[in-house]
Design brief:
It is built from 14 helices and twelve strands. By secondary structure, it is α/β, with parallel strands linked by helices. The chain has two domains: about 130 residues, Aspartate Aminotransferase, domain 1 (Alpha-Beta Complex); about 240 residues, Type I PLP-dependent aspartate aminotransferase-like (Major domain) (Aspartate Aminotransferase, domain 2, 3-Layer(aba) Sandwich). The strands form three sheets. It has a seven-stranded mixed beta sheet, with helices on both faces. Bound molecules: 4'-deoxy-4'-aminopyridoxal-5'-phosphate and glutamine.
Length: about 375
């Protein structure tokens, strides 16, 4: 079997969700909302299932969804994307990331990852043959250091895989940081694979700005979105890639042999979702802001130092000195088994080398009564 995969533990999200079920814990570990997305979209998917057709849609995706993705690029970011050649629909952002790596990277190419990193990045980049160059950012501000980033680039850099807004750091990269990444991509003739699944989850008046909008980046970036995050349908696994035809072409060649296509009923509903009015997107951010504040304030009240959250639906706390165990993994076990609240140890996002061991991530996209139940349990335990 392949050592890259046999050597990797089962993903922390599955491990912690299983432990949460086993111990009837409130699950603030794995990131998923506890309320499904808009009913109107569920009805569209249901009707499309009953009415059909339920056969293979076009390999690139339903034309109406590709058009909706192009329209959303124009509406939110002023990007001009050709739906015929510059959009690809995938079975979730996870497949999109795999397709991008398989379509772009050749064995021996260097790929830059920013740590902490979403857990599928490293094994998938390695399986694509990449030599990974990690660059670390650190709390509380997770600032990207020019020297560290510059040191990671070389003549062999094929791509940087950037997650913005960033899970688990809950960071939104600043204009300066994005300009720096763009400058180095241009200088080293590298591509950018931009995982922007949390593009519509940025708070406090921030606006998401794709790296693709920076000078020189339109032709060398692909950006990835997910209906799982934007419409709270994580189980649907509908993702979308936008980028120049010269990149989407080879990426689609990978996609055609990974899944070939994505369920047409779900694509139809997501097409309608992307065209939602501003009230939907604004309401989504307002709701998540309230949930973020609810959980952050509650954790703070219990004595946890809470890190800032600029985007995504995660907040992290420092558990040093809270008496929850020798490290973040032990603390998450204690929290789940003893306190009845599941969380994710941040060390799981540092697969390359010596992770920090005192940070724990909580997911806040839950109903207020669920957040209260979690806080009550924590209070009773601490
Ligand atoms: N990228 C990041 C940063 C994520 O947090 C997630 C988690 N859901 C994904 C990709 C995967 O998205 P999807 O469920 O659409 O595959
Ligand atoms: N992205 C989600 C998280 O960070 C988990 C997705 C998964 O379980 N694969 O919690």
């Amino acid at each position: 079997t392949n050592a890259i995969f046999t050597g990797v533990p089962t993903t922390v999200f599955e491990v912690m969700s299983r432990l949460a079920i086993e111990h009837k814990a409130v699950n603030l570990g794995q990131g998923f909302p506890d309320v499904d997305g808009p009913e109107e979209l569920r009805r569209i998917a249901a009707e499309a299932t009953v009415d059909g057709p339920n056969q293979y849609p076009p390999m690139l995706g339903l034309p109406e969804l590709r058009e909706a993705v192009a329209d959303a690029n124009r509406r939110f970011y002023g990007l001009d994307i050709d739906p015929a050649t510059e959009v690809l629909i995938t079975s979730g952002a996870t497949e999109a990331i795999a397709d991008c790596l398989f379509g772009i990277v050749e064995p021996g190419d260097e790929v830059i990852l920013i740590e902490p990193l979403y857990d599928c990045y490293l094994p998938m980049a390695r399986r694509a043959g990449a030599e990974v160059r990690p660059v670390r950012v650190s709390p509380p501000d997770w600032r990207l250091d020019r020297e560290a980033l510059e040191a990671a680039f070389s003549e062999r850099t094929k791509a940087i895989l950037l997650n913005n807004p960033m899970n688990p750091a809950a960071k939104v990269f600043s204009e300066d940081e994005l300009a720096l990444i763009a400058e180095l991509c241009v200088k080293y003739d590298a591509y950018a694979i931009c995982d922007e699944v949390y593009e519509h989850l940025v708070f406090d008046g921030r606006k998401h700005r794709p790296l693709m909008t920076f000078p020189g980046m339109r032709e060398r970036s692909v950006r990835i979105g997910s209906a799982g995050k934007t419409f709270s349908f994580t189980g649907w696994k509908v993702g979308y890639i936008s980028g120049p035809a010269r990149l989407v072409g080879p990426i689609a060649k990978a996609h055609q042999f990974v899944t070939f296509t994505t369920p047409p009923n779900l694509q139809k509903a997501v097409a309608k979702g992307l065209a939602s009015d501003d009230a939907y997107y604004e309401g989504f951010v307002a709701d998540m802001t309230a949930k973020r504040d609810h959980l952050s304030e509650g954790l703070s009240r219990l004595g946890f130092p809470v890190l800032p959250c600029e985007g995504t639906y995660f907040v992290s706390v420092d558990i040093a000195g809270m008496g929850l165990g020798e490290d973040d993994v032990a603390a998450c076990r204690t929290l789940t088994v003893e306190a009845g609240v599941a969380a994710i140890p941040l060390s799981a996002f540092y697969p390359c080398r010596n992770p920090p061991k005192t940070f724990v991530r909580f997911c806040f996209c839950k109903r207020p009564e669920v957040l209260d139940a979690a806080l009550d349990r924590l209070e009773a335990y601490l």
